[in-house]
Amino acid sequence: MRAPLGDFDDATPAPDCLGLLTAPVADAVRAWSNDVPADQILYVDTDPEIADTAAFVEHYGAGLLDASANCVVVAGKRGGESTLAGCLVLSRTRVDVNGAVRKQLGARKASFAPMDTAVGETGMEYGGITPIGLPAGWPLLVDAAVTGVPWVLVGSGRRRGKLIVPGKAFAGLPGAVVIEGLGV
């Protein structure tokens, strides 16, 4: 199957290649409940050595920059309690951690979670964290701009491989809250 964006050799519906995904991502695809059918989540194989956005876009197609999104893990702190959340923004923007995230989480302070926390809590590889399969109960803050993109390239849970997902699907993920201006 041909990918709807980028210069990829092949695209495979995620339900047909669960073995290539991390356990939390594969479990989320198996249990998929969304207005967008699971077979519209496409997996494309990519070189893990060029997983970072700039190198990736140069290799797989310049048009991907406008269709790529990054998922990062943030920690909001209030009193002695910490709340972890996923944040999804277009790659050409950055997460408004001290404004939109802090406000949405009701936190006094918010920051990017340490790498070992992000990896340990999600069960995904650093550089491949995806909003699909985040831990149950976590808020998923989604920039409204992401939901307006027809096809969005995101991590697959591993540094090797990416998922191509209709943008509107992210609004229907567990814990999703769509926020205007999350990405600045």
Automatic annotation (TrEMBL):
Positions in coiled-coil regions: none
YbaK/aminoacyl-tRNA synthetase-associated domain boundaries: 48-168
Domain of life: Bacteria
Protein name: YbaK/aminoacyl-tRNA synthetase-associated domain-containing protein
The organism of origin for this protein: Streptomyces chryseus
